[in-house]
Amino acid sequence: MTKDRISFSFGKNWKEYLKTVSVEKIDAAKGDLEEWLGKDFIRDKTIIDIGCGSGIHSLGFYLLGAREILSIDIDKHSVDAAISLWEEQGKPENWKIQHASIMDDSFISEYSKKGYDIVYSWGVLHHTGDLWKALDNATKFLKRGSLLWIALYVKGPKYNRDLALKKKYNRSSVFGKWIIEKRYLTRQYIKLLIFGEFRTLINAFLNRENYMFRGMDKKHNLKDWLGGLPYEVASLEEIIEFTKKRDLVLVKVRTGFEGGNNICLFSKFK
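The structure assignment produced for this chain is given below.
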């Protein structure tokens, strides 16, 4: 079997994105954390950010008073991006950044013993090549009363088509990638028109690069979606059943459409 070519780097995309980071984008990341976890909840908590990407949400945890943060990513460029934010904050001792993988048993054995108050992994575990092992590994960092906050791609009938598009994007030249990006973006605009999402469509056109999605602008989010391999999906029912067997209860959820994420917040009850 021929291995899929992967030419896209999440980390390089995050590095490019950081060139656009403003106070407003950082505030948006902090606001998202507070919306889900509650104002002042993060203060004095211990956090592990699995697949930290640019590090903007780790930064949000830091600015909101987390006692300890461990940010990890398998992509060296993502680690470098997060380090640049850490350096801008004066290299705080309570925020550690490490080049590591959630699939590495030795890393898990070493760092999961004490447990963390919040285990955060947004849009990461479905890119590991083994989503369920990655999710199982993430739960090993929990202790009684901990929160697990994850986002996973929604399972649906268009999976094979989307997977083929991602593979085509990774096989393409720089110009070929640009063509795919333009075609895909046009298709998304058409969907907004069909479903009557005129306000979102107008906002996208008027604000261009400032059209935000969880702190990431439209351009970089598009590349992130198109380039993301490996690519797996899960239904909400599958996620709930899997986590239930690991003593987790769902406390908050935001369901998404196929191509997007189900965002779930779980609590470990024993």
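Interim note for the steering committee: The mean pLDDT is 89. Residues 59 and 89 are 9 Å apart (CA to CA).
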